[in-house]
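Most newcomers find our protein records easier to grasp once they have seen one. Sequence and backbone structure share a record, each on its own labelled line. Nothing more is needed to start thinking about how sequence determines fold. As an example, a complete record with its sequence and its structure tokens follows.
=====
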Amino acid sequence: MRHMVGWLVIAGAMMVVGLATASVQGPASKERELLPTDVRQRHVEKITDAKHDYVVPFRGAIDGVMTRMPISYAAFKQGFQPNLWVRMENVGDTDVLNPWLTVNGIGDWRTVEKIAAEATRGCVTEAEKARALWEWERAHRFHACTWDNESSDAVKVHNVYGYTLCGNDAQILSDMWRAAGLKTRRGYPVGHCVAEAWYDGEFHLLDGDEHVICLRRDNQTIASEAEVVRDHDLMKRTHTYSIGSPENELLDQFSSSLYGYEGTERKGEHGGLTRHKMFFALRPGEALEWRFDHVGKEYTYGTDPEPGKPVVDGMGNLKTWGGLAYEDLRNGKWVYRVPLEKPSVWRKGAQVVENVAEGTVCPVEGKTMRLVWKMQSPYVFVGTTLKCRHEGGPVRLSFSPDGKAWEKVAEGSESGFTSATIDRLISTRGKPTYEYYVALEAEGPVTLQSVEFDNDVQMSLLGMPELVVGDNKLQYTDETPGPREVRVTHAWLERTDWQPPKAPAGAVFPADGATVEGTKFALRWEPAEAMGEESKIADYQVQVCERPDLRWVLSPNFDKRVSLTPSKGKAEWMIPFTGLLNPGTTYYWRVRALDGHGVWGAWSKRFSFKCEAPGVPLNVQAKAQQDGTVEVAWEANPEGRAPVAYKVYGSNEQGFTASDVEYVVAAGRGFCDTMEEYKAKDKKGDDPFYGSVKTPSNLVTKTDQTRLLVAGPGVDLPNANQAFYRVVAVDAKGNESGASDYAALPRPMVYTKAVTEAKVGEAYRYAPQALYSIGHYTCNGSYNAAYWHREKLTWTLEKGPQWLKMESGVLQGTPGAAGEYEVVVKVANNKSQEVRQGFMVRVR
């Protein structure tokens, strides 16, 4: 009956059913595919105390957590889910105030303060709290939205919806940080939304939507947004979009392009929209049911996309975010069966009781009986069916969103059953329904036999009381001042035909506790064993942590599904870049296996290793010399093995990646100054700097000194006279450090030696060259990625003989007489920076 529309006649009474055009309504979730040996189980707990602990034994071999892919940017895949439903119902005679369930100490997310408290358990420092909340947030939502502020409330997101867009996520993460006592600040990316947390005397960027933190060169400290803007390589060496995304350096480069705001004023905060609380009362006869499936009903503010036209922001629902997003929808139940058999009880549960004969549920003779009930839930209502069984005459059912404006939704003309499905009035687009009113009216010899409100509500799967394999410790609490009688029923399936794969038995390389040479190598482990003849190992997840408790990984680079890396199909994973690990630091790692049924096994034991390598060079600086040259100088890092040599790298790209070999740069539409120019370059044409560009090595040279002359007249090393330089340390065994921070050379700086000799009657020519930056890959206004900030040079002859001219940046002319002439040329860039070169030209 849930999706019936039109006019139906049941049991001799006419049933008026409203058009089932709820905010969004689609097909229900697929029925579980059961095995013949699956066993249905049920546990019933009777509760009479305000705090009640109990244990539910789950004896199957597989639970829903085991078959859930790691939560990442996009919607997650949930495999076999043995939990069916959990019903909490008031079976007593008094209201139950603010009841709740937690499982194994998890799930009291009724306020933002409670969320923050659970997420930061065991945290001592502000840095730990900031990181713990970021980790918790990104593990409990995926990328989708309602297109309004419903998904900007942390309590609603984690209990009702389960998804956010970046704009929502920055809001709720900021609210969660503040609930933990942290100061926050908004970020300034283009086409994206992020927030920063303050600790250790500075701000740090933690992006909960794209799962990004960028570590500084120390491989420990989370960088600020301003640091990422200055040096995109911090993000280019970071795995973006989390564990569900393949390793993709071009995607990481695009993520860095969103960060281009170079303003010094960074102020303002996100958040302040979390006001919801999961507090409610259950009247006698009222029940909340968490269900681990869905009937296809959801709330959204988004409008329907037009057929054949692209979906843009503001359109759609979970289906438009993909099949997995829709599969992750959950619908629970909020049911109220009015206990008409208990007159003193049901009257207390109604808002209005007018003209009801004493001791009955019948109208007073000659008058209209009017009953009004208010339905209220912390979960958003997404569908409602009203059901009334009566004898002796007709009843009328009316609906009101506020108790003021009413609309008749059903009227039965005879004894029997009057019902109305009023989905069309519930959570219409832009108007989420958390409460509504229903009025029942009747005259004459009518007797009510039952009244029921059958509501569908929307729920987040990750916010429900989910049983896992083993003895589950549940705790019920409420704030009822008097006695209560509550019945909690858990229903689930137990499957024993599937067994999770065994954990990998040991570390192959590095051996547990070993010290290895270098910081880029493959972690290898003993292959896991799948259980059962029909299963095999399909994937591994590997994590590397600096914390011995393995609470969180070192960075997004170190939480990987092997199938999404070049090591696919192997019991190994290659660390993607040199220098992501520090020498002398103990790192801990573990791995688990996924079998062909989509079941994750247990984690392996904790393994450890250390690296031997030099530390990243420190204090890299450009120093101008008196002779017009510039050298780059640096200091050896006291951490790690002593360097015996250094590699120096140079580039005109701000935030460049140091590379010994040819590599690929994401250039977007190349060099652009205006949007008109950007739009005109919709195809590569003859532009070599467009799209994905193969770029030569930017190695300058190798030296055993801690300084190198890199720019100026006479400096002719490869990649000399560039705007930016980095340094890599090399030890006696050839191990390299990560690349240093970059040193920026003064710009513009004329680095060519002037032509100071000329002959009478012969053409003189001098083409001066100066340092400039091509800027970095950024987005302008929206996702319009290109090199927007290239420095352009303008040359001017400020002083010189009449025969000398500056044309197109070339100083040229033909002298007519011998002599010595003073020449001054000026070069200025479009950043309001300028410099002059003065010299004498001797004409013979």
User: Anything to note?
Assistant: The two ends are 105 Å apart (CA to CA). The first helix runs from residue 112 to 119.
